[in-house]
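Researcher: Here's the sequence for the chain we discussed earlier.
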Amino acid sequence: MGAFVISKRYNDEYKFVFTSRKGKVVFTSLSYELKFECEEDIEKFKANIESADFLKFKSSGGKFFFKLMMGGNHFATSRKYTTSLRLQKGIDEIVRYGSLSETLDFSAGDLVFID
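Model: Thanks. This is the structure I predict for it:
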């Protein structure tokens, strides 16, 4: 099962990524000024995952990616995939496990493993 991971960007805004069962990033959200907005959007997404739209694109370099749309608004952008089949597998993983996934918060920046 995947996980939603909340973290901070270098400009002190929050973001989250959805990671696959194997730990690879599937998509990255837009930026949020406040952490609770990030948490709210994760919960809204989990509750309304069936209404999500996946717009598929091919980059100029030949890689495949998708934009995740919720309610007609851009919600997140996927990582780049080498084939359209891998892209579809990423989408399938979101649809299958997204609503069941846990949320992990690494935004505090505290060290998890101390020397």
